[in-house]
């Protein structure tokens, strides 16, 4: 069974005027006014559905001067019994479910009370001593319990002309007007008790905020004045005046002193804070400001719509140490609008030296990715369809190695990547020999990865293939054997350094073989001198020309670096693609890749980027 919360239960007293009516032999009907003062201890509030009690309740009955002579006719001394005293209930019941309770259940003795007919009033207490506990039950809804004084029935033991006489009287709240012979209604409310949910227990301690510095630095001989503190509580409010400070500071002696600030709220929750006071020998004035170090980039670039997260900063001081937590940042960044924004980071040390640095945040419009100059690259088997692509696009026939360029009048065959001289790729260490290859051939220096193109005037350095890793579709990877499925991104190229096989990575199918860059089986003519040793297919592979020997080199002339007669002629095509490339991919920019292939490309017909 629920028990009512009776915290702060108080004693209350309320007076209600009553009219008592009785029929007295030989006298007739008597109507007497009296005051009934009910006193009880009751709770400030109760919870819905909870039992509670009116404790130590008693009543004091008083008859005024107009009623004393009438009482004297038949009832003197006053004595008898209260047989019924109802308390009427709203939003509450007795423990047996009734909307009233009889506090005189079983009868209450009226103490014998003598009086004189000339007394201004006569009073008695029921019960004569102590009080009565009345148990009640609150309603199930929040609101208020209203307790009203109800009907009282008494049996008075009177005396009429010397003869004993029992007089029954019924009393109800009201005032009898003798002039009009009417009974006026009155408010019979005795008590109002709120029905409400209990306030949750206060378990939150106060918050103490120290004024001034912590730690606080002083020099020997300085005067110490406690900066103090403030304290607030979520229930009790300002508790600053209740703060107790313990500890002391002796500024005549260097050292570290601790002051403890303590406060408690009305629920007993305690809070403490400590301040460290450091007394040090007199020192030279500190004039060195802290040092602020920005984290992240400065300037920091963002695109419109990006989320800005301040990388922050650190601050150190030669005396105070780490001041990072004291850095104050001013300024703001609106990434919805392009522009240049400035954030200022400021910090001061205990000596008042201030340092500040600024970070520039540049918010720029996001540039749409544009295909490189030269349009798009497509590939397929057979010649390109006339309706494919636009002017400036390239197309690779992977069956024949033919490369087409689309002009205003349609697709035009430009060259063949597998054909004879003029479309070969040579490799070697160092710059190419002047007499090596023909116009249109390429040469890759495997030590520096410099790429050369031969024109009518000789070899020209056109770029270096060691570039940084690019985005999807802009990288070239080199290794031995077929490429691993996890290597690269869609649109990247891969060349097998042993076979010269060229692959491209498709977003759906992974690495797809395109063609072999080994060059023609026909003898090469990249040899110098009058001997003009020709490349061939013999097992010795000592030809100077770019042959397709059994070693599977990409136009390489053999193991003597292209020498035809004891390595004297340097007309060979050089070494195979470098072994070092098998361990570290060469990442080419897309522009250099397309230069290597003799054109410009971006996408493929099978749409690498889907």
From TrEMBL:
InterPro entries hit by this protein? Cry22Aa_Ig-like, Ig-like_fold, SH2_domain_adapters
Q: List, as start-end ranges, the regions of compositional bias called Basic and acidic residues.
A: 469-483
Q: Where is the composition biased (Low complexity)?
A: 542-551
Record's compositionally biased regions (Gly residues):
552-574
- Where do Acidic residues bias regions lie? 529-541
Q: Which domain of life is it from?
A: Bacteria
Annotated Pfam families: Bact_surface_Ig-like
| Region called Disordered, residue ranges | 469-491, 519-580
Q: What is this protein called?
A: Pesticidal crystal protein Cry22Aa Ig-like domain-containing protein
Q: Which organism is it from?
A: Caldibacillus debilis
**Residues in domain Pesticidal crystal protein Cry22Aa Ig-like?**
208-279, 292-363
> What are the TM regions of this chain, as residue ranges?
586-604
Tell me the GO molecular function terms. Answer: phosphotyrosine residue binding
Which keywords annotate this record?
Membrane, SH2 domain, Transmembrane, Transmembrane helix
Record keyword Transmembrane helix present:
yes
């Amino acid at each position: 069974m629920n028990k009512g919360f009776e915290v702060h239960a108080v004693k209350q007293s309320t007076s209600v005027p009553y009219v008592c009516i009785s029929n007295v032999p030989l006298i007739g009907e008597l109507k007497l006014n009296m005051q009934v003062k009910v006193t009880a201890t009751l709770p400030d509030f109760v919870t819905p559905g909870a039992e509670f009690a009116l404790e130590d309740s008693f009543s004091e009955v008083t008859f005024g001067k107009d009623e004393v002579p009438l009482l004297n006719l038949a009832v003197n001394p006053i004595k008898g019994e209260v047989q019924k005293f109802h308390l009427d209930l709203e939003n509450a019941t007795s423990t047996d479910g009734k909307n009233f309770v009889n506090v005189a259940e079983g009868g209450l003795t009226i103490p014998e009370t003598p009086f004189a007919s000339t007394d201004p009033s006569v009073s008695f207490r029921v019960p004569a001593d102590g009080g009565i506990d009345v148990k009640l039950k609150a309603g199930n809804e929040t609101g208020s319990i209203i307790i009203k004084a109800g009907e009282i029935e008494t049996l008075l033991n009177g005396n009429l002309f010397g003869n004993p006489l029992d007089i029954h009287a019924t009393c109800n709240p009201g005032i009898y007007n003798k002039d009009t012979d009417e009974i006026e209604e009155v408010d019979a409310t005795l008590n109002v008790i709120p029905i409400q949910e209990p306030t949750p227990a206060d378990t939150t301690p106060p918050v103490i905020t120290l004024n001034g510095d912590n730690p606080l630095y002083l020099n020997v001989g300085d005067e110490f004045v406690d900066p103090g503190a403030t304290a607030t509580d979520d229930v009790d409010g300002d508790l600053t005046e209740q703060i107790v400070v313990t500890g002391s500071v002796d500024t005549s002696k260097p050292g570290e002193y601790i002051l403890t600030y303590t406060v408690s709220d009305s629920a007993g929750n305690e809070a403490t804070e400590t301040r460290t006071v450091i007394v040090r020998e007199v020192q030279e004035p500190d004039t060195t400001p802290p040092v602020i170090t920005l984290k992240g980039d400065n300037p920091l670039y963002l695109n419109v719509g990006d989320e800005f997260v301040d990388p922050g900063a650190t601050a150190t001081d030669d005396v105070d140490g780490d001041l990072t937590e004291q850095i104050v940042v001013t300024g703001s960044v609106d990434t919805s609008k392009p522009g240049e924004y400035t954030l200022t980071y400021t910090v001061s040390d205990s000596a008042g030296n201030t340092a500040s640095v600024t970070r520039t945040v540049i918010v720029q419009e996001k540039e749409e990715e544009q295909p490189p100059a030269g349009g798009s690259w497509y590939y397929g088997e057979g010649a390109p369809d006339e309706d494919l692509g636009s002017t400036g696009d390239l197309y690779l026939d992977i069956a024949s190695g033919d490369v087409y360029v689309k002009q205003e009048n349609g697709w035009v065959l430009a060259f063949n990547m597998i054909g004879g001289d003029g479309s070969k790729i040579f490799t070697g260490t160092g710059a190419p020999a002047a007499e090596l290859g023909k116009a249109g051939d390429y040469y890759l220096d495997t030590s520096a990865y410099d790429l050369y193109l031969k024109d009518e005037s000789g070899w020209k350095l056109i770029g270096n293939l060691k570039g940084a890793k690019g985005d999807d579709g802009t990288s070239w990877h080199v290794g031995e054997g077929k490429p691993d499925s996890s290597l690269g991104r869609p649109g990247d190229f891969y060349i097998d350094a042993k076979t010269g096989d060229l692959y491209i990575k498709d977003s759906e199918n992974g690495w797809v073989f395109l063609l072999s860059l080994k060059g023609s089986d026909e003898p090469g003519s990249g040899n110098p001198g009058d001997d003009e040793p020709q490349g061939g297919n013999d097992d010795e592979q000592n030809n100077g020309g770019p042959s397709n020997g059994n070693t599977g080199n990409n136009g390489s002339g053999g193991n003597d670096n292209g020498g035809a007669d004891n390595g004297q002629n340097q007309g060979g095509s050089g070494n195979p693609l470098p072994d070092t490339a098998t361990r570290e991919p060469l990442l080419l920019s897309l522009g250099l890749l397309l230069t290597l292939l003799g054109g410009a490309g971006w996408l493929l017909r099978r749409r690498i980027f889907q």
